[in-house]
Every structure is written in structure tokens, then in C-alpha cells.
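If your schedule permits, I should be very grateful for your opinion on a structural question. Please examine both parts with care and let me know of anything in them that strikes you as inconsistent. The record follows directly beneath this note:
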Amino acid sequence: MANMLPRFIIPLLLLSCSMCFSCKGQSGPFREDFEKGEKDAYADGVVALSSGKWILQNALIANTDKDKKNGTGCMRIKSTGIASMDFDVNGDVKQLLITHATYGTDPASEWVLQYSKDKGSKWLTSGMTVYSTGIKNIAVFDINLDGPIRFRIHNRNGGRLNIDDIGTALGHVVNLNPPAKAGRDANMALGNPSKADSRNPDNYLLVKPQYTLSYNNKRGIANWVSWHMSSAWKGDISRCNCFAPDESLPNGYFKALTAQYIGKGFDRGHFCPSDDRNASMADNAATFRMTNIAPQAPNLNRDVWEKLESYCRQLCSEGNELYIITGAYGTGGIGEKGARENIVNNITVPARFWKVVVVLPTGDKDLERVNATTRIIAVDMPNNQNVNTYQWHHYRTSVDAIEKATGYDLLSNVPVSLQKIIEARTDQGNIR
């Protein structure tokens, strides 16, 4: 999807199976929305907030029109300021999301989240440096630690930083990885196109609840991404724009940063689209992990590719479920700057993007229901600014042609005799 400005969403904290923390002996989900508590000066001090006591150094509780807040209050931290919990959170802390922006028209700010397992004697940085601008955004931190643990936010450089809604701001617990519902079927039901596994860094299998992918460490992007699409995956969660490194990659693997795309003339293009996963915050946030992103020419990402994505969702809304596999191959694309680029900041710019869509009426035992008449839409598009000379259906091709270009076996779980029939033809279906 297009490289759009962030929109505000309400962050949550993913809890353990008990879905409960205990703070200072009080049970309940940890959250802080900065709606209670007063501190109107930057001088060091302690303030009692709804979650517990916080130590604010060069920081205050703010409520002006220039503060980027949700509700009546937020926190504002000057450059080099620190806001620290003066209490521990007990429980299995898996993931923390924090809303952030810079105050008023202040310049961009750089900050980090830190944690302590010894009541604040020693602080360690969690994740990467976060860059805040004047637009509210959400930072996603994979914690994966048992309590007791406490956190602090350190504004290291730049403008004044607004922080709001750490935890479950609405006061109720939401499971960020909800159990599968009817119609949420296996994302790789039709096969593993490249036989990806956990041993090969350039064909590394990553299995997530929302999609499955093969990651190429040398190229810094996915080889392919596979997912199931049905009405069960659809909802009304806002696009989070919470681009973040994929910390589920092994140590030592290249982990792309969203900042590496800025100013290079290419969009942060999704493989699995944000709008295909908007039933919950976790589903949507997963699509913004950088392993699901690759450099796409803007006219491809925002026009032709997006229209195909929308058409797939239309098919889904008409009583179908889809199995989608998409990927990129080759090297060298042409973005807004007009020149062919092979690599930007250690990330390979693909020459082409492809997609295979298997369309089935909604039902059960999906693999068994694939037959000689099943509609298969396959496209192969150039990664350049002239791609929108034609509509997406101009780029329809056969699965066989994509397999020849990539070396993959795209529908490997389908019986070979049936593959020979459905993979050889080019879709001629009606485009509405």
C-alpha cells in the first residue's frame, strides 16, 4: 500500500494468557492515558498517574491545543528528558504500543524505550530508536519478558515529545492475537512455494497468524508472502501506519528500518495489504512489519497494485474466500527520481512484482475444493513509474509463467495433474 501519513489509533498492551498484570499489588491490565495527574513544570519531580507513580525529569503532564493528545492530557518531554515508571509490572509482557508525536511545530524527535528488571538500577534499550514527527503515530515494541519489569521513555534529541495512551487506553483488555474464527484458514494451505525453512537465511520461513513468508536476508525483503482472505479477516480497525523492524528474525539477520526508505523515491509497498487485515489491531500492525514491505514505484503501489488489491477484497465481499501468494523478483526498479535503482540502503529494489489469487466460494475443506474450473488470477508487473499506463488486468499471465521466472512451485499442495490444467491458463474472468 501507499506510503501514507500516519493516522492515530489507540494502542494496547498484549498480556499473558491470564490477560492480567499486577501493579503495586493491584490486579488489572496495565495502561496509562495521562488523563489523571498534574505536573505543569519541567523541573524533576514525581507525579501520581492512574497506573502508578512516575518520575518525570525535564517532563510534564500537558493539555494545551498544541499537544498531540487523545482526550484531555498527555505527557510532554523535552530533549534529553526522561519519564520513568516508579513501579513494576508483573506478568508476561509480550508487546507494548505507544502513541507519539512532536509538540506543536517542533522539529522531529528521537527517543527510545528502555526497561529495567531491577527496579531502575540498570536500564536497557528495547528495540530501535523511534523518530517522531508532528503527526501522531504508533510505536510497536516486542518485549517478550516476564515481570517484574518497569519502563521509561528517554527523549534523546530534537523537539519536545508528546507521549500518550501507553497500554489499554479504553480501560478494557483486548487480545492482540485473537483466536482463529470461522473462515480464518491456513495462510499457506496451497503450499510452500520455495520450500522455505528455518535453516536458509535467504529462504527463511516466518509463520505469523496473519500471513506466512519466505524472507531473503541477502535482499532484505521477502521472496514471497502467502495469506488467506475472507470476511473473517475484515473489520473497521484504522490503518495504523506503524512500520517497524521485524524482531522475529534471528539475531544477525538484516532488519530493515522504515527510515531506510525515506527520500529514495520508492514507497513502502505491502505484500499482504493493510486493508486485508483490519479486524483487530494486532492483525493490522502485523502488516507493517518490514518483512512484509518492499520498495515499490509509487505509480505501482498507489495505482495499479492497489486496484488489484481492492478487486480481491470485492471478490471476498461477494461470497468468496481467496488464497493469495505474492512476491517480487529481479533487481532494478524506477521510482519517482526517474533513475533505475538496484539497491537502496542495503534493500534490493525488485524489477517486478507478481501475485497469484485462487478464488473459491466460501466453504470448508478448501484445498479439496480446488478443481479444473477454479478461477486463478496471476499477474506480473514491472516496478516502474510507467506501469499505470495500463490497468492491472493488462498484466494477467499464467502461474506457469511466474513459476518459470521465479523457480517456485506456487500451488504445490494441489495435485500435480490438476496443477497442469489450472497453472497453464491466463485468467479471462470478467473485471467489474
Q: What stands out?
A: The chain has two domains: 13-167, 204-422.
